[in-house]
Amino acid sequence: MIAEPDFRLADFEPADAASELAESSIWAGDLTVLAEHHTTPEGTHSYLVAHDRSMTWGVPGDPALVAIKITRDLRERTFTFETANHASLAFAQNWLIEHGCPPKQIAQAKGTS
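Now predict its structure.
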């Protein structure tokens, strides 16, 4: 497993206020990536499922997994950032698939086979 995600947003700016808020509400240091997929070679999209360790301090029963979709506009150097919290890995993976992630690329968590 990867200890901290790399959102690959160096030199990019949020495309809108919603993306800025979503990105600023995620603390990369609190996340452990369970599954991820980055499109290649352009790198226009990233899809991640991560465990948010900060949720242990929140309301009991709140979902501790977060699905993250990042879309980059390489020409404008902007990004959109979407997140959704989920109670299980399968729900988080399904949300990413519904948002354009190839199913085989996000099907298994890192470190499993």
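The first strand starts at residue 13 and ends at 14.
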